[in-house]
Amino acid sequence: MAVLSPPTLSPLLLNTKSDFGSPPSLPLLPFSSTPNTRFSSHLSVSYSKSENGLGSEQKKILLERYGYDIDADEYFSHSSSKSKRRKESLKRKGGKQVEDPPEDPKPPRTTHKLLQVLGGTARRVKLLSPKGMDVRPMMEVVKGAAFDILQAAGGCPAALRPGRWLDLYSGTGSVGIEALSRGCSEVHFVEMDPWVVSSVLRPNLEETEFLDASVIHTVRVEKFFERAEQFVGNSGPFDYISVTPPYTQVDYGVLMRQISESSLIGENTFIVVEYPLKTDMLDSCGNLVKITDRRFGRTLLAIYGPTWSQKKRR
Asked: MF terms per GO, please (predicted)?
């Protein structure tokens, strides 16, 4: 004679709530056991005053006995709560799914004519410059002072000594164009922004008719120095170098060391450096000495040159 096991509680009743923590009065649903079962199972259920009726550990044991996937239950409960929060969010927004507005496209870059050539053959010719602060040309008062100092130090107050100029971080090209207007024979412009080159620098060179005396390098200054011979060949050092970088994007110590160690400077080179307050500039750059260091508001101007230029400037 087969031994029948007592009825076993259905998991369908596990989450039935009771107001007073006592077992629910609903009838238990029996599961029929197989006739050839040789053992009986006895399930002891204790109720607590929790909302679900069963203790958490006992509930877990009972569910696992019925092959219930505890991990899946937690996953879907989590998903359900997320879905509920999403529905509540949509309800607060009138029941409609509101998507984040797309980012406004950047406005097209434009130019204006606020700069001009200060001296020489192209004097008073207006130059293009970008609107906004992405390109910051050298202030005209600083540029005028720089060329006055260079001309006096070179022994020719009326014009620059003839030579080749390297305009680093050239932007609008106003410094190199000023050099061409005042007597330089050739200028190499180094500017990394293709839009500035095509929409500002090249049109300025065409307007001043200096395009044939110019070489444009659309490359970062660091890369230009790493491959200097590839860009300028074996034509020797430059007579002038202007350094007018965006203040916050360069390390002046690293930059000046890179310039001083380059074959692009010689014993008679002049270097013009524009830099901000609270920047320590060395008294020399390679074999060149600082011949002036002037302040214009928040902008400072340092000029390095050969030792003989100090005597001529005095």
From this structure: methyltransferase activity
